[in-house]
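Hi all, long-time lurker, first post. I run a small reading group and we've been trying to get comfortable going from sequence to structure in the token notation. Rather than ask abstract questions, I figured I'd post a concrete chain and ask someone more experienced to write out its structure so we can walk through it together at our next meeting. Sequence below, copied exactly:
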Amino acid sequence: MPDVTGGAGLTSGPARTPPPRPLIKTPPRTLAFDDEHAPIYTVGQVCGLLDVQPPFLRRLDAEDIVQPARSEGRQRRYSRQQILDIEHVLSLTGEGLTLAGVRRVLLLEAQVRELQRQVADLGGTV
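-- Answer (accepted) --
Happy to help. Here is the structure in token form:
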């Protein structure tokens, strides 16, 4: 029988599998969506999520209650945490508070959290 391997006289043997590649562990990617403070939601998206109107969100911004980040085109962008803050504002206004009252409550809540942190740092319990 003639040699069909190109004259080298090689015969084909069992197929060889390549050695396994070492596993390279890459750290997981952190996406903007994973960060609760990443400003990724538009006014329209927030309005749809919370069933509010855009003027309400603009008013919260003007009253320094919830201040969203701005895109390069100067459009408001909200984070997941800010959406939760707006939900809290909605619950407070639903109880009859004005936006001035809401601002005061939010300030007092922030002060309480800071005092609790200080107590915890001193080794005490709240």
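A couple of things your group might point at:
Helices lie at 43-50, 54-62, 80-94, 99-121.
The CA atoms of residues 47 and 81 lie 15 Å apart.
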